[in-house]
Amino acid sequence: MQIVEEPAVEGSHNCKNYMTDGGDTLVIGGTLVVESGAMVMGLPLDFASVNSTGVIYQVENQRASTATDVATLVNDLNALLEKLKNAGAMEEDPAVNA
């Protein structure tokens, strides 16, 4: 099998996806489909919070537990679960029918 390198096209384009800058830039003007099992390497992620936009939510810090009894450990775990839910990293609890 022979691999032929073709120069990147500069100027006008007749397709939505093309290479530019001597092949350093791939312009996606159409749809980019990432198949199951594929990986995207080197993509910078801007963290979001409840009050800001970004690519992925960053959960508020939960300090390591220093619990010495079960009740305190339950409180620490519940605090972590609440932070995960507030950040959108975990579904909210289902409504309880009263």
Topology of this protein?
Blueprint: E1 17-20, E2 25-28, E3 47-48, E4 56-57, H1 70-86
Parallel strand pairs: 3-4
Antiparallel strand pairs: 1-2
Describe the protein.
One of its GO terms (cellular component) is virion component. The protein has one helix and four strands, in the order ββββα. It is α+β, with helices and mostly antiparallel strands and 98 residues long. The protein folds into two domains: 30 residues, no CATH class; 50 residues, no CATH class. The strands form two sheets. A two-stranded antiparallel sheet has the order 1-2. A two-stranded parallel ribbon has the order 3-4. Strand 1 and strand 2 form a beta hairpin. The longest helix has 17 residues. The radius of gyration is 24 Å and the shape is elongated.
Using brief descriptors, characterize the structure shown.
98 residues, 2 domains, two-stranded antiparallel sheet, two-stranded parallel ribbon, 17% helix, elongated
Give a nutshell description of this structure:
With 98 residues, the chain is an alpha+beta fold.
By DSSP (H or I, 4+ residues per run), the number of helices equals 1
Order of helices and strands: EEEEH
- Outline: elongated
Task: Tell me the radius of gyration.
Answer: 24 Å
The proportion of residues in beta strands is 5-15%
Pfam families: Phage_head_fibr
Protein name: Head fiber protein
InterPro entries: Phage_B103_Gp8
Subcellular location: Virion
